[in-house]
Write a structure and sequence with these properties.
This protein is of the alpha+beta class. Helices cover 25% and strands 17% of the residues. It has 2 domains: 69 residues, no CATH class; 234 residues, Jelly Rolls. Helix 2 packs antiparallel against helix 3 and helix 7 runs antiparallel to helix 8. It is globular. The relative contact order is 0.15.
């Protein structure tokens, strides 16, 4: 087999500047524009490309050129440049490790297995950090026969649940999820889902915490055999219930733990990106990436070029295992009922520390 060509470093010197946010012609160079310019130069972008991007955004050409010339002599920039070089070393190390992963001719294929032993699960998928879809362990789940939208309405329809609503008007609906919380009767929500067709405007997500309530406890009685390395006694506290129409999208992000996600009704398409490629996903806010895998803009996100995206459709009765740190974007292809759980038995707690970036304001328009 011919070895793959090594990828270009994630932040090579001489790269093109990112697309700058639009600004009315003549807009003054605020401190936020100074920050943006500094970031582009620290990334190794050419001064010419930074200037072109600023002019295209509507900024004054002469003032922009003067700012670009001024920045590299600033003492703060000189200090930051040393840290940027260290960051590039770390990024190149991750890129080299990713290259080793991609040597595997089966890298782009997510394993689908009827079952695996605990030993293999720990070795190949937990410590090996590989996604997995299990297809056999839900055969004894009463949920597979009971859970349907009609059953949810008949059995629990009188109860209130927390959903996310009016999502389509806000591209950051998941990051701003607190503003989209609504309490509705589950029966009314079932009617809305069944009548509304394909949409991403409303979704009952894991944030609803319904399974912590005694009146929803019967749902847990419908869960049969669990995947390897699960602690049954922790299921109630570490599980979540999902329900929504076709077209719901969980945007690109990573979790801070490992989990299983079982499809009971409908299909979901999972797209996954290695944690070793996270430095190319423009993660500037918590665990989220602004990249939409349905419409990637390489002019705005040039570092994404060449990122390997894995894809798998999870069918009813199948369970996705999400390893630590894997980025994922998930779309429901049908009306969907899902059950997720993170009650893994590991030598260390299934909760890991991430020093997440804090979002910053963009330059004034």
């Amino acid at each position: 087999m011919k070895p793959p060509k090594p990828p270009a470093p994630p932040r090579p010197p001489g790269m093109q500047a990112e697309k700058a946010p639009p600004a009315p012609a003549g807009t003054s160079l605020t401190p936020e524009w100074l920050r943006w310019t500094t970031e582009q130069l620290l990334r190794g972008c050419t001064p010419e490309s930074v200037l072109a991007s600023m002019i295209a955004a509507g900024l004054d050409a002469q003032a922009s050129a003067e700012l670009i010339e001024l920045v590299p002599g600033n003492a703060v920039y000189i200090a930051a440049e040393g840290r940027a070089q260290q960051l590039r070393k770390l990024e190149s190390t991750l890129a080299n490790l990713q290259l080793l992963w991609e040597i595997d001719p089966m890298y782009s294929i997510v394993d689908k297995r009827v079952s695996v032993s605990e030993e293999e699960f720990m070795e190949r998928y937990v410590r090996g950090c590989r996604p997995l879809v299990l297809t056999g362990h839900t055969r004894d789940w009463p949920a597979m026969q009971r859970w349907s939208p009609d059953y949810l309405k008949d059995r629990f329809g009188h109860l209130d649940v927390e959903v996310q609503a009016e999502r389509q008007a806000n591209p950051r609906y998941e990051e701003d999820k607190a503003a989209h919380r609504r309490n509705v009767r589950l029966g009314d929500f079932v009617d809305q889902v069944l009548a509304g067709g394909e949409t991403n405007d409303y979704y009952l997500t894991a944030n609803n915490e319904a399974l912590r309530r005694p009146d929803f406890a019967p749902l847990l009685d419908d869960i049969g055999s669990l995947p390897p390395c699960c602690i049954r006694s922790e299921l109630a506290e570490r599980s979540s219930f999902w329900f929504g129409p076709a077209g719901t999208v969980t945007p690109l992000h990573h979790d801070t733990l490992m989990l299983f996600h079982t499809q009971v009704v409908g299909r979901k398409r999972w797209r996954l990106i290695s944690p070793l490629q996270g430095q190319r996903l423009y993660n500037t806010n918590g665990v989220f990436s602004p990249i939409d895998l349905d419409a990637v803009d390489l002019r705005q996100f040039p570092l994404f070029a060449g990122v390997r995206v894995l894809e798998v459709v999870v069918w009813p009765g199948e369970t996705m295992f999400l390893p630590l740190g894997w980025w994922h974007q998930v779309r429901a292809l049908d009306v969907s009922v899902s059950f997720s759980y993170s009650n893994l038995a590991l030598p260390i707690p299934n909760m890991f520390t991430y020093f997440d970036p804090v979002p910053r304001a963009v330059p004034d328009a």
